[in-house]
Design goal:
Helices cover about 35% and strands about 20% of the residues. The protein is an alpha+beta fold. It has a three-stranded mixed sheet, with helices on both faces. It has a two-stranded antiparallel sheet with strand order 1-2.
């Protein structure tokens, strides 16, 4: 109300544009895809979160689903799926596999979320609307902590490898030399990596 610039943006040629997105089939039937500001560009293709959420909700164990786009370290937007599945407590791995199978069977690969997050409840406004920005923030925070852990583990593993190679007088480990080819082994049992 009383926002002249916004009003000019939503009126085009005398028509009020709601920014609701639809597709229509060969028979002329329209299908609601969501709001234009909810659409995500993934791998050069426009993706409707509503289409993915609709597929996920076909699984009876899922009571609520929401898809958001989250930028990765390379600046590419990737899909993250948030879901509420009260009956899946302790069996989230099984449900995740079922959902991946369902999505892969019914959607193009670029529409299949890379990450799934199980929540007790969705973040909502006082009026009951989904707070997608809060979901994006949760995914970004989770991604940042995973990235930090991976950087730490890589750093730790690299130093262990350097110390191991110095101790065993190995000048280089590369494509032609594998750790398993040498006469010694890495002492740190926590390390889990292959060197080519």
């Amino acid at each position: 109300w009383n926002l002249k610039k916004k009003t000019r943006e939503v009126f085009k040629d005398g028509w009020y544009c709601t920014n609701d997105m639809f597709t229509f089939d060969a028979d002329g039937y329209y299908e609601y895809q969501g709001r234009a500001d909810d659409m995500l560009k993934i791998s050069g293709q426009w993706v409707s979160p509503a289409e993915i959420e609709e597929q996920v909700l076909k699984n009876k164990a899922v009571s609520e689903a929401a898809v958001v786009g989250v930028s990765n370290e390379d600046g590419l937007v990737r899909l993250a799926l948030f879901l509420v599945a009260p009956e899946a407590k302790g069996k989230t791995e099984e449900l995740e596999k079922e959902l991946i199978d369902l999505l892969m069977a019914n959607l193009s690969i670029y529409k299949c979320p890379r990450r799934m997050y199980f929540l007790d409840e969705m973040p909502l406004t006082a009026t009951g609307k989904l707070q997608r920005f809060a979901l994006r923030q949760m995914a970004e925070n989770q991604q940042a902590s995973v990235t930090a852990w991976i950087k730490y583990e890589t750093y730790r593993q690299n130093w262990t490898l350097i110390l191991w190679s110095q101790q065993n007088k190995i000048n280089s480990i590369g494509v032609d030399k594998k750790i398993s080819d040498s006469q010694t082994t890495i002492k740190d049992a926590d390390i889990n990596f292959d060197v080519l």
